[in-house]
Amino acid sequence: MEEDIRRKGTLYFHQQRFGKRWRKVWCVLAAESRRSVSRLELYEHKYSSFKQGSSKRKPDYKQVIRLRECIQISEREMADCPKDCAAFYLETSDKLYVFAAERSEVKDWIKSLCEQAFPGCNYSEPVSSSHAREMQENSLYDTAESVRDFLVMAVGTEAAVRCSLYGEYILTPLPEYLLLKDVKTKKVLFKWMYCYIRKFGQDKLSFSFEAGRRCESGEGNFEFTTHQGERLFSIVSAAIQNLPRPSTAKPISPDHAEQSLARESHGHE
């Protein structure tokens, strides 16, 4: 099966070492398919002839960046950038990559990368070099820590079985609620408002929470395996702390009682 190549060309890769800090690399941007994930492949620049079709020998990959792991893509000013080039950052969940492209091409590279890393977002507005271009769907707040879709695996708790949850899903933390989406269609299956979540926790391999009776899923414990449990926990914790507090002049409703319980107990899980 032929790969779905969306863009290819020369970029400069910033190296954190002495001597020559920018290395010219040949980059290939591939879209997600049934057989592979969306990714940016980095080759030694001498192999560019192969990618342009003039060589029959396929080189070994120099490096592969899985765009599913991408958190943020942003154009940045750098003093030592190669001549007539502009720099941009590509941040994943565990590493920050710095590239440079010719000024006439940098916005097109960022747009193409964002389309694969953040499908469904709008890229019509220009990218500013004075601040990070953080995708709206991947940002908890305009100036807060960036977030993304988390690939998770549902654990068969009583509540999960009742809701027919099994296998892989996408869990997306937003400012007021958690979304659970189908991994293929991205259709929203459940929405859990933070004010109705009683408590939540995490360990090295999972993220879990207790939904209150007002949640559309009904009450119960939900657990999802993920290697990003700590990050999920910190995002949800920050979101709950920033929820508007109920007015003390009004009677406390069951909704507000569950919201208060969430605030009090989120740090104890």
Automatic annotation (TrEMBL):
Region annotation (Disordered) ranges: 245-269
InterPro entries per record: Docking_Protein_DOK, IRS_PTB, PH-like_dom_sf, PH_domain
GO biological process, alphabetically ordered: cell surface receptor protein tyrosine kinase signaling pathway; positive regulation of MAPK cascade; Ras protein signal transduction
Residue span, PH domain: 4-118
Domain IRS-type PTB: 146-250
PROSITE patterns: IRS_PTB, PH_DOMAIN
Name of the protein described by the UniProt record: Docking protein 3-like
Composition skew (Basic and acidic residues), residue ranges: 253-269
Cellular-component GO terms for this entry: cytoplasm
Domain of life: Eukaryota
